[in-house]
Amino acid sequence: METQKDQARSSNLYDQLIDQYKLEAHINQTAVTDLYRAFDVDENRLVAIEILLPTFNNKKQFVEQFIEKMNKVAQLKHPNIAQVYQIGVTANNRPYIARDLVEGTTLRERLRQLNQQGTPANSIYALKIIRQLAEALELAERLDLFHYHLSPDNIMLKQDGTVVLVDLGVPAAENGMAAYFSANNNMPYMAPEQVHGKSADSRSQIYSLGVILHEILTGDLPAEPGSFWQTFLQAFNPQNTALEQARPDLSRQTYDLIDKSLRKQAWGRHPSIQEFLEAVNDALQSERLLVQTRGDTAVLAPPPPRRSRAALMLPLVVLLLCLGGVAAIWAVVQNQNSIQPTALPIAVDGPADEGSTPTPTQAQTSAEVEVSQEAIPVSEVTSATGIIDVLAPPDATEFQAGDTANFRWSWRADLQDNQRFAVYLLTENGRTLLGSIGTPATDGVYSLQTLLPDTSSNAMSEWQIVLEDLTTNRDIATSSNRRISIKPVPTTPTFTPSPTNTATPTFTISPTPIPQVEISVSSASLRQGPGTVYPILRYLYEGDILGVIAKDNSQGEWYNVVLDDGTRGWVAAIACRFLDENSIDFIIVAATVPPRPTNTPTATPTNTPTPTATFTPEPSGGGGGNPQPTSPPPTLTPPPVGP
Questions:
Q1: Would you call 542 exposed, middle or buried from its count of C-beta atoms within 10 A (0-12, 13-18, 19+)?
Q2: Which of 71-80, 293-302, 480-489, 537-546 has the highest mean pLDDT?
Q3: How far apart are CA 89 and CA 67, in angstroms?
Q4: DSSP string of 366-384, one letter each residue
Q5: Are 546 and 519 contacting, i.e. CB atoms less than 8 angstroms apart?
Q6: Which of 140, 205, 372, 565 fits 145 for a cystine, CB–CB 3.0-4.6 Å?
Q7: Among 293, 190, 313, 306, which Cα is nearest to 256's?
Q8: Minimal CA–CA distance to 594: which of 512, 518, 515, 535?
Q9: How open is the CA angle 458-460-466, to the nearest 5 degrees?
Q10: d(Cα 131, Cα 123) in Å, to the nearest integer?
Q11: Where does 389-487 sit in CATH, by number?
Q12: Cα 635 from chain centroid (whole Å)
């Protein structure tokens, strides 16, 4: 970590502006970013700048994921979420975000203060903190945004009591997040499934909130996650939990809230942040009612252990299991009797005469037909629980290449961790992936927005949604095919000059259009050459479409682009996103690039404001004779170069 800090400091970031931001101080280093305090010279305010660490800057997929998630966070406007103002790229091609600089203390520091005072936190105060966090996470969940390292270090407490969540959506480091949490003593806040490498979801965030609530109330972390079966067995041997012994003054709703949030199995917790938020409100109401009825009391004894209703239902459960077992055995016996050879029908070959004895033959296919008919309901049940119902766009919708299409569908079953939905475009050349989603939807309705590629044809194509198993690489379910029409983008005359002196078709023989890119960050600089040493021609903003003429080298770190108005320049490749990924292969390396600017500026005529003084020296005093060039010392005004 020290090496990464040294690399960040050695980049001379303090000596230059990052767009309109002037760095003032390095605050700390988070999981994947360097955090600075900076001054916004345009808006005249202090902001926080988070710059991606060099370790992750070399991972293209991680950088794209970082920029994509930060663009989503920038859309959120919530008092409990740190506002992201801008996403950009530094001079050394490191992505950064500019966000609100929250004035206050971290929840970690507040917990230290409570520990030093030796007084437990008020239950209403603790639940209010969790409620604000849950409200922020519930809004972020609508955009498929999650907090991948939720802990007291990323929770800010303002002076007015507002809780602000920072680093929302910052992606988890590949194979490094667990190590980061372990090194920073934050591992207890991770859900068990996250420790084992699974991605974060609503239930993992609920677990982190449960740990934080437990720590606020008791000052200690929970011992270990409690499983669903431990809770079930406790119903028959009730004992006070560690929380009940440490805080006997809490309501039963608060105990149940923390107990369910800290379940070891994800399916034992609340399925969504919305349901968790409702449980928090119920606990908060119970705590207020408890304070009103009890008032300020002395230290209370631990509440009596509660015997769950599950103990009373045990005989009924055992009886139902026994009846179910008997019914299953009876069904098997009846099934075997129904396919005995003696019960097979008899078929007579040929017409039967009255005086002849028919030759009986067993209809051997009847048993096979009967067995296959029994297998039919199984497949029907599978399809009934796994039907992909397409909602949008309507059939035979017309689009233009580069348009954004919103694909929506519903799926009644739960999406497993090893499954994903993929939207494919079906053309005569095969199946093309348009996008995929692997995050479960709480309401069963999924949505995918993606840019449509150029099919180079006006013919009607088809698309479908496929549920895939990532472990076996097999299709689990497939929707019905829908038709779609993608019109090619019309060529613009700005990109295909046609000279008038000759009618030769040399300029129109270009079967592939100029590749187009879209600015994917908040702002980017259009420069005179491929590098930050070149002067800035103008600023580009998110959503601007550019035509790519060439690249600086085989790696393509900078693109030579042309704008709609004919302006040409160079833009960093990391700030761009291709509208058609296949067009990357058609970009050639530029034959020539502008010469790099020298260290001594050439446009400095102000150093010799009066060059005529060396040609017409003024006489000194009242003396005459030959004029001497002593009045203007030659060391102060160098002689002009050239005639």
A1: middle
A2: 71-80
A3: 10
A4: HHHHHHHHHHHHHHHHHHH
A5: yes
A6: 140
A7: 306
A8: 535
A9: 130
A10: 12
A11: 2.60.40.10
A12: 62
pLDDT band, very low/low/confident/very high, at 557 (cuts 50, 70, 90): confident
Query: What's the mean pLDDT in 596-612?
Result: 53
| pLDDT, mean of residues 583-605 | 72
175-233 per-position pLDDT tens digit: 444 444 444 556 788 888 888 878 888 999 999 999 999 999 999 998 775 555 555 55
433-467 per-position pLDDT tens digit: 888 888 888 888 998 888 788 766 667 888 899 99
Beta bridge partners of 163: 157
Pick the CATH number of 516-578 from 3.40.630.30, 2.40.10.10, 3.40.50.720, 2.30.30.40: 2.30.30.40
* CA–CA dist 50, 33 (Å, integer): 6
pLDDT of residue 11 exceeding 50, the answer is: no
Dihedral pair phi/psi, residue 404, rounded to 5°: -95, 120
DSSP codes joined into one string, 48-115: EEEEE-HHHHT-HHHHHHHHHHHHHHHT---TTBPPEEEEEE-TTS-EEEEEE---SEEHHHHHHHHH
Q: What is the pLDDT of residues 25-59, one digit of tens each?
A: 998 888 889 999 999 998 899 999 999 998 888 88
CATH 2.60.40.10-classified regions of the chain: 389-487
All CATH 3.30.200.20 domain ranges in the chain, comma separated: 1-100
Around 282, how many Cα atoms within 13 Å sit in the side-chain half-sphere?
13
Query: How many whole angstroms separate alpha carbon 374 and alpha carbon 368?
Result: 10
pLDDT at 375 over 60: no
> CA-CA distance, 140 to 142, in Å (whole number)?
5
Q: CA 374 → CA 338, 365, 634, distances in Å?
A: 12, 14, 108
Q: Which CATH class is domain 105-293?
A: mainly alpha
Euclidean distance between CA atoms 213 and 441, whole angstroms: 26
Q: Which residue, among 103, 95, 102, has the nearest Cα to 58 in the 3D structure?
A: 95
Inter-CA distances, 23 with 226, 515, 609, Å: 46, 36, 36
pLDDT at 95 > cutoff 90: yes
Q: At what angle do helices 123-141 and 273-294 cross, to 10 degrees?
A: 160
118 with 66: CB under 8 angstroms?
no
Prediction pTM value: 0.52
Rg of the chain over all Cα atoms, to the nearest angstrom: 36
Q: Please give the Cα distance from 251 to 279 (Å, whole number).
A: 13
Residues 216/126, Cβ–Cβ less than 8 Å: yes
- pLDDT for res 203: 92
d(CA 584, CA 438): 27
Residues of the chain with CATH 1.10.510.10: 105-293
Q: Is 589 helix (H, G, I), strand (E, B) or coil?
A: strand
**CATH topology (fold) of 1-100:** Phosphorylase Kinase; domain 1 (3.30.200)
Q: Does the pLDDT of residue 250 top 80, yes or no? A: yes
